[in-house]
Amino acid sequence: MASLKGTAGLRILAYGSALSTYVLIVIGGYVVFSGSGVACGSSGPDSWPLCNGQVIPTLSGPVLVEWTHRLFTLVVGLFVLGMTIVTWARYREERRILQFSTISFLLLLGQILLGMVTVKTDLNPLVSTAHLAVASALLSAVILNAIAVRSISVSSDLVLR
Ligand code: HEM
Fold first, then answer.
1. Rg of the chain in Å (alpha carbons)
2. Helix/strand/coil for 2
3. Is position 54 within any domain?
4. Is the pLDDT of residue 73 over 90?
5. Less Cβ around it within 10 Å: N or C end of the chain?
6. Which uninterrupted H or E stretch holds 52?
7. Which ligand 1 atom is the nearest neighbour of the CA of 128?
8. In a domain? residue 161
9. Tell me, what's the pLDDT at 42?
């Protein structure tokens, strides 16, 4: 069984995944309500993964809002990818964590693709709704994963006492 000390890195990755996903969803809400969804361009070739044809656009107003949403996806991506790699490398026997972290990773990949389609289809309502639906599913998966990680940390703490 994993020791409490041994699960410290896993807990950072699990809690970081949950917190950063929550923050990204709030930023996504701001993208919608501020009308910044096509600030990096819409259906044209310059709108994704570039922003108005630039890697780093001029950051002000709606462009800053949309670009922050995209950039913060990188933070979520690092936590979720790190969580998945560490789980597959060291915690394969923890079935729930293996399942939740792998599902989180797959949802994240789907969400990044949907983000692209959202932009390319000029904020098609069906695609935007799917983007919101996958965001909710991803948040559920990372929270369930964090709860599962906490439960193995607590049980290993009890064994140590
Ligand atoms: C983990 C990754 C992501 C999450 C959790 C996420 C979440 C969200 C959420 C919750 C919204 C608000 C939806 C609504 O209220 O209807 C949103 C909006 C949006 N997101 Fe993301 N997003 C992610 C990645 C991306 C990426 C990589 C792009 C790339 C372009 C993107 C583009 C957009 C756009 C354009 C909107 C505005 C949609 C509209 O105005 O209808 N998202 N996102």
1. 18
2. coil
3. yes
4. yes
5. C
6. none
7. 41
8. no
9. 85
159: left (phi over 0), alpha (psi -120 to 50) or beta: alpha
Q: How far is CA 141 from the centre of its chain?
A: 10
**Structural domain range at position 20:** 5-156
Determine whether the shortest distance from the Cβ of 75 to ligand 1 is under 6 A.
no
107-141: per-residue pLDDT in tens? Answer: 999 999 999 999 999 999 999 999 999 999 999 99
Identify whether the C-beta of residue 122 lies closer than 8 Å to the C-beta of residue 38. Answer: yes
Task: Evaluate whether 127 touches 121 at the Cβ level (below 8 Å).
Answer: yes
Q: Per residue in 12-69, pLDDT tens?
A: 999 999 999 999 999 999 999 999 999 999 877 789 999 999 999 999 999 999 999 9
Distance in Å, CA 28 to ligand 1 centroid: 5
Instruction: Classify residue 108 by burial, with Cβ atoms within 10 Å: 0-12, 13-18, 19+.
Output: buried
Q: Which amino acid is at 118?
A: T
3-state secondary structure of 38: coil
Number of domains in the chain: 1
